Amino acid sequence: MGDALEDMLVTPVEMAAIDKDAADSGIDSFSLMRSAGLAVSAAALRLFPAGLRFVVLCGPGNNGGDGYVAAEALAESGAQVALYILGDADKLRGDAARACKGCRLAGLPVEAYEPQAGDIVVDALFGAGLARDLPGVAQTIIKRVSASRIPVLAVDLPSGIDGRSGEVRGASFTATHTVTFMAAKPGHVLMPGRQSCGTLEVFDIGIPTRLVAARASDLRINGPADWRHYSRGLDAGTHKYKRGHLAVLSGGPTSTGAARLSAAAGLVAGAGLVTLGSPPEALAANASHLTAIMLKEVGSAADLAEWLRDKRLNTFVLGPGFGVGKKARDFALMLCDRALVLDADGMSSFQQGREELFDKIAGNGGQVVMTPHEGEFARLFPEIAADAALSKIEKAQAAARLSHAVIIYKGPDTVVAAPSGRAVVNVNAPPWLATAGSGDVLAGIIGAHLAQGFPAFEAAAAAVWRHGEAGICAGRALTAERLVENIPPLA
Fold first, then answer.
1. Are 29 and 22 in contact (CB under 8 A)?
2. CA nearest 67: which of 128, 10, 123?
3. Could you give the CA distance from residue 259 to residue 248 in angstroms, rounded to a whole number?
4. Backbone angles phi, psi at 316, to 5 degrees
5. What one-character DSSP code corresponds to residue 232?
6. How do the pLDDT tens digits run along the chain, 491 residues long?
7. Between 20 and 30 A from 312 (CA), which of 26, 96, 153, 400?
C-alpha cells in the first residue's frame, strides 16, 4: 500500500461510495473484483502451503463474488478446492453473478459443509458492509468451523463482524488472516472485531488514491505520521523552560503514588521540568520519594491562584489519586486556561455539573485532554455511552464535541477524538498494559507533550502510542514503575 493509504480507516459507507466513484470514473468494477479475488487466492497459497483442501464459502453479495474468483484461481493453480454457497446462486446480480458464472467448480449448499483435517476455510460469506445479525445457517457453519479449529482466511472481514463498529452480529469467524482492500475499516481495529481478524493484509486492487482520499473522513490508525512534525529534536540553545514546565497535582498523604507516577512519566517523556503540587499534609510523604521532580505546597484554591501567576507554568495534570469532590472541581475550573490533562478523579468529580466544566473549556480554547476508561466514560457521558447504535469511535467523537475537549477513550482499542471529529484508533498496546498505575503514566506522558507545545490532539495521540510502545518494551511482567523506565524517545 502507498503511504497515503497505509494508516487510513474507511467506513463501509465510505467504501461503497469509493467503489461507485471508481465505476463512475470508467474503471471496470469486475476488474476490481477479479483483483480482490486473486489477492485472496495468492494469500491462501502463500500462507497455507501445507493445506490439503481450500474450502471456499461464498455468500450472496459481492464478498461472495470475490470468493468465486478466488476459488477458480486456486483450482487453476492445482490446489484441491471445494465450493460451498449460501443462498441461491441464480439470484446473484452484477459482478457477483459474473464471477459465479466464471467459476467452473460445482457448489454445494453451505450447510452441507463438514470440516475435515487439513482444510483451510476461505470465508467469503459477508464482508465489511454487514450491519445485521447473520442468518441462522451462517451462524451454524461458523460454530461448526470454530469447533474444528481449522484455519480461516477471511475476505475483507471475518463474517459476522460489523465493519463500522467491530461488534459481533450473532456469531463470527475467528480468522487466522484477513485480506481487505484499499484501506482498513473500523471493524478491523475496534474490539472485538480486531481479535477476530488475525493478521491483517490491506491489498491495493487498483482504485486511485485520490478517489479513496476524497471520500474518507479524518479517521486513521494511530501512528507517528500523525504527530511526527511536532516531535522535532532539540536545538542547541534550548533550556528547561523552553521544553515546558509540567505541574502534577497530588492527593492526600495516603494517595500520593499516582501523582508521582504521572510526574515521573512526564519528566522521562520530555518535559523540561516537573513540579508536584502537594497539599501540606502530604509534603513529607512526597518529599521522601522525589529527586529531580520539584515539590511545591498547594493546599487550597488560593495557593493554586498564586502559583498560576507564573506564566511559565503552562501545563497541569489533575486527577491521579487526587480525590473526588469540590476541591477537584474548583482546581479544574481554574486550570482550563492552561493546557490540562483531566484524569481519573478529576473527571469523576464532574459526574454532576459537567456543563460548567464544558463551558469553561469552550471559553478557553479547549486545550484540555480527558482520559476516561469505560466506567468513567459512562459516568461523565451517560447518554452517549448508552447509545447502542454508536461505535466506540462515534462515542468518542460525540463526547469530544459535547465537552470541547480531546477525549482519550481508553481500552484495548483506545480511541483519541477531537471536537472537530478527527480521530485515531490505537493498535499497538499489549494486553499487559492493563495494570495498576498504567493510566497515571499515560497522563504524565500527555502532560509532557502539552508542555512541549503539542496541540491537544497530537499530544494525546502521541502519548497513547508511546505508552503502548513502552508496554511492549517493558514486557509481560511490567509494573507502572517499569513502564516509566521504558518510555521510548519521541524522535
1. yes
2. 123
3. 6
4. -130, 150
5. P
6. 445 678 999 999 999 999 999 999 999 999 999 999 999 999 999 999 999 999 999 999 999 999 999 999 999 999 999 999 999 999 999 999 999 999 999 999 999 999 999 999 999 999 999 989 999 999 999 999 999 999 999 999 999 999 999 999 999 999 999 999 999 999 999 999 999 999 999 999 999 999 999 999 999 999 999 898 887 654 444 545 556 899 999 999 999 999 999 999 999 999 999 999 999 999 999 999 999 999 999 999 999 999 999 988 999 999 999 999 999 999 999 999 999 999 999 999 999 999 999 999 999 987 999 999 999 999 999 999 999 999 999 999 999 999 999 999 999 999 999 999 999 999 999 999 999 999 999 999 999 999 999 999 999 999 999 999 999 999 999 999 999 999 999 86
7. 400
Q: Residues at the annotated binding site for (6S)-NADPHX? A: 62-66, 127-133, 156, 258, 321, 373, 440
Task: Report the 10 Å Cβ neighbour count for 309.
Answer: 7
Grid cell for residue 479: 509494573
Binding positions for AMP are 410-414, 439
Q: Return d(Cα 234, Cα 490) in angstroms, integer.
A: 11
Is residue 396 a contact partner of residue 460, using CB atoms and an 8 Å limit? no
How far is 316 from 217, CA to CA, in rounded Å? 32
Q: Which phi and psi (to 5°) does residue 87 adopt? A: 90, -170
Q: How far apart are CA 67 and CA 54, in angstroms?
A: 11
Please state the residue numbers annotated as binding site.
Answer: 62-66, 123, 127-133, 156, 159, 258, 321, 373, 410-414, 439-440
Q: What is the DSSP letter of 164?
A: T
Query: In whole angstroms, what is the distance from residue 184 CA to residue 329 CA?
Result: 41
Annotated binding site for K(+): 63, 123, 159
Give 390's DSSP letter: S
What nine digits make up the cell of 194? 480486531
